[in-house]
Design the sequence.
């Protein structure tokens, strides 16, 4: 549970409380990212504590030829994404039409996720978006921005925001 005091989120959970086994996974369509993307992602993933691992699962983008059946390819990518989700795990889709969260709101969500103790799967689709079956499986929809963002940058942005939300909850000075 969290309290908002003067616009700041504070955790009511003791910091020395045993950690849950929750894991956050970013399941994203696309692979073979530039080195700066891998370095950026790893920078934030390694900053998080062992009790809050942040993992990246890449789903290869299916090659789109001149006469490709894009609907079928999106469906295949969606099936591959969902195959990485175990029963009972939470799915959060990143969609332009999702709910925008401030840093403090994301910190509050992170605290709720942690207390729920289920693994979290953040889903990012390919260039044409998420497959309908992924959206149907989603329990929450999160919008990073109404802007169209490059997929490589989204990975780093998600990693940084998860880390920032954790720093808010833990009282770490990074967010200041």
Sequence:
């Amino acid at each position: 549970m969290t309290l908002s005091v003067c616009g700041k989120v504070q955790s009511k959970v003791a910091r020395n409380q045993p950690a849950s086994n929750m894991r956050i996974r970013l399941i994203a369509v696309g692979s073979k990212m530039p080195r700066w993307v891998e370095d950026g992602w790893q920078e934030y993933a390694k900053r998080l504590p062992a009790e809050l691992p942040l993992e990246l699962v890449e789903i290869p983008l299916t090659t789109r030829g001149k006469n490709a059946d894009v609907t079928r390819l999106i469906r295949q990518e969606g099936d591959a994404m969902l195959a990485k989700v175990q029963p009972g795990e939470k799915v959060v889709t990143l969609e332009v039409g999702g709910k925008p969260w401030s840093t403090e709101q994301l910190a509050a969500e992170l605290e709720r996720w942690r207390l729920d103790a289920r693994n979290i799967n953040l889903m990012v689709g390919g260039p044409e978006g998420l497959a309908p079956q992924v959206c149907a499986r989603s329990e929450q929809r999160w919008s990073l921005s109404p802007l169209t963002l490059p997929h490589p940058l989204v990975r780093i942005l998600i990693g940084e925001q998860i880390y920032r939300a954790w720093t808010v909850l833990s009282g770490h000075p990074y967010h200041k």
